[in-house]
Design brief:
The N and C termini lie far apart (65 Å). The chain has 25 helices and 18 strands. The chain is an alpha/beta fold. The strands form three sheets. It has a six-stranded parallel beta sheet, with helices on both faces. It has a six-stranded parallel beta sheet with strand order 9-8-7-10-11-12, with helices on both faces. 36% of the residues lie in helices and 15% in strands.
């Protein structure tokens, strides 16, 4: 059979029904092999970056694997941002690039290029994939495909890339004679499992927990990567321990759950940061504790708490925050052992601690103060939108201020998913990721929340969404500037708004959406917002809603540089922070303001 046919057969057997791609000469054999197949649908997009983001959204919803393809040279290079997004956020995805014929490839010769669009994508991509290889021997195709997909999902998930020269794609092979990766020495070596979670670590964790009166669980994206959301929920409901979330851990437990205490970190809720700051026991599950969680003073993060950190990636343990117990383990295995060990043990009463957290939530809601009369307050808008969403909706956020407003104030319902761009943080993520999510979960409504800057990065995919008649509802929070950096400039650059307002503009988004053939309208009055949101959510097909905001709308609160997480900007009145702290407040004279 033709090798390209074998590749497509293999992809179908992985439970992948959609390939996201933009055609080019070097992948015509592969895409031709999908023609007239009923089990594989090619989703043709208008930029390879969109194909990569769509594959990520697809994988994050189906929990298995996303696949994207691109031609050689510019096509392969355009995948890089999406590949990096998958790598940093631990998403299993297979990227296949076309390459010039092996006899046109320069190899080690000291020339820049021989074949048209020839580019050494394998060397370029290696720092942001788990595995990358150019397949030059057709008889190795089964081995390389099996190895790549195995590595994508094994351990901490991530992307892999195979580069296929055109003469390899069109080669004739006998599938019965192809060597398998499974059962090979390499497979046996790679399959070496993590050491089982030790009874000593479980008992140590429980002993530390028993001594605590203000415990907190910090859930990261690793909980969902480990397929451990059910175990996490059982632990929370059995113990009554409150939960705070990282950006990627927001949909591990619904925001409407009584134990959910919100988003922590630089753009977190003030009440959530006060919760983690005043804890005396912190169980960290599948979170890498990056600076956006801990602030720029990691030694002050949960400083009064005994900390237990569980992560499948050993290099993340004790890397940024020193902990009392580091457990190198799969989160699901750890939680399974914890639940078993808790059987028969009495449940402690944390009602007083929950009361404190409730008082923080009531006293310190997130939101932008001092807006002009009649202006739409974005956090209140997110509350309206979440109240009118329904169980099972998929919410996809782009990158910018709107991402933080939604992460702070969109309270997720049962069965809802929230796709956030974390480590790469690329503008333009949301719309193509929503296309992938919609393809992975047909029939489920997708809500995109984007900014005026982010939506323009991949706005061409409105055509893709309309062409496929996807149930995507797009809300663009438009303050006519690149607000995240503008807010940073206002804080640290004396309001010099170079390139965020100066040299930046936004076109008429409603008119552009209309040109793409979808219903679109603007919301500029908060009093009419509930009815207009309802209309958008219940209109068939793709809808774009432009939400007009004041230019100076900010993410509030926000953590400033060289402040502990509980001391957010705008600062509280003198003495107020000290009055609500259970532990000793940080000495402000020790700060190094910039």
């Amino acid at each position: 059979m033709k090798l390209s046919d074998y590749v497509i057969d293999f992809i179908g057997k992985q439970g992948v029904g959609h390939i996201f791609e933009m055609i080019g000469g070097a992948i015509t054999h592969l895409l031709d092999s999908t023609y007239d197949r009923e089990d594989i649908d090619c989703v043709s997009v208008h930029h390879e970056q969109s194909a990569a983001f769509a594959a990520e959204g697809y994988a994050r919803v189906n929990g298995k694997l996303g696949v994207a393809m691109a031609t050689s040279g510019p096509g392969a290079l355009n995948l890089l941002t999406g590949i990096g997004s998958c790598y940093f956020d631990s998403v299993p995805a297979l990227f296949i690039t076309g390459q010039v014929n092996t006899y046109e490839y320069k190899g080690s010769r000291p020339v820049r290029q021989i074949g048209f669009q020839e580019t050494d994508i394998v060397s370029i991509v290696r720092p942001i994939v788990k595995y990358a290889e150019m397949v030059t021997d057709p008889m190795r195709i089964r081995y390389e495909l099996e190895k790549a997909v195995f590595l994508a999902g094994h351990g901490r998930p991530g992307p892999v890339l195979l580069d296929l020269p055109m003469n390899v794609q069109r080669a004739a092979i006998d599938p019965e004679k192809l060597e398998s990766f499974f059962g090979s020495n390499e497979h046996r070596k790679l399959q070496t499992a993590l050491k089982p979670v030790s009874s000593r670590d479980i008992e140590h964790t429980l002993k530390l927990l028993e001594q605590a009166s203000r415990p907190v669980i910090l859930v990261g994206g690793g909980v969902r990567c480990a397929n451990a959301t059910d175990e996490l929920r059982e632990l929370v409901e059995r113990t009554g321990i409150p939960v705070v979330h990282s950006l990627l851990g927001l949909d591990v437990l619904p925001g409407t759950h009584s134990a959910s205490a919100g988003l922590i970190g630089s753009y977190g809720n003030r009440y959530s940061n006060l919760t983690v700051a005043n804890s005396d026991f912190l169980l960290i599950l599948g979170s890498r504790l990056d600076t956006r969680q801990t602030g720029t003073m990691p030694d002050t993060f949960a400083r009064a708490a005994v900390k237990v950190h569980v992560d499948i990636d050993a290099v993340e343990l004790n890397e940024k925050v020193r902990v009392d117990l580091a457990v190198h383990a799969d989160v699901k295995s750890f939680l399974t052992r914890m639940l078993k060990a808790l059987h028969g043990r009495p449940q402690k009463d944390y009602s007083a601690w929950h009361g404190v957290i409730g008082s923080y939530r009531a006293k310190y809601p997130s939101g932008t103060p001092a807006l002009p009369a009649g202006a739409i307050e974005p956090n209140r808008f997110m509350e309206l939108l979440s109240d009118r969403s329904q169980d099972g909706d998929l919410i996809v956020l782009d990158v910018g201020q709107h991402q933080m407003w939604a992460s702070q104030s969109f309270r997720l319902r049962e069965g809802q998913r929230l796709l956030n761009a974390g480590g790469m943080g690329a503008m333009g993520f949301a719309l193509p990721a929503a296309i992938g999510a919609a393809k992975a979960a047909p029939g489920r409504r997708v809500i995109v929340i984007a900014g005026d800057g982010g939506i323009q990065v991949n706005i061409q995919e409105l055509n893709t969404a309309v062409r496929h008649r996807l149930p995507i509802k797009i809300f663009v929070m438009n303050n006519n500037n690149l607000g995240m950096v503008r807010q940073f400039q206002d804080m640290y650059f004396d309001g010099r708004r170079q390139s965020t307002m100066n040299s930046y503009s936004c076109p008429d988004l409603v008119a552009i959406a209309g040109a793409y053939g979808l219903e679109s309208f603007a919301i500029d009055d908060f009093s009419r917002a509930p009815r207009q949101i309802e209309h958008a959510l219940h209109t068939e097909g793709v809808v774009l809603v432009e939400v007009k905001l004041a230019v100076n709308t900010t993410v509030t609160p926000k953590l400033a540089v060289n402040h502990p997480v509980e001391d957010m900007s705008p600062e509280l009145e003198a003495g107020e922070l000290e009055s609500v702290m259970i532990i000793e407040a940080w000495n402000k004279s020790d700060r190094r303001d910039v």
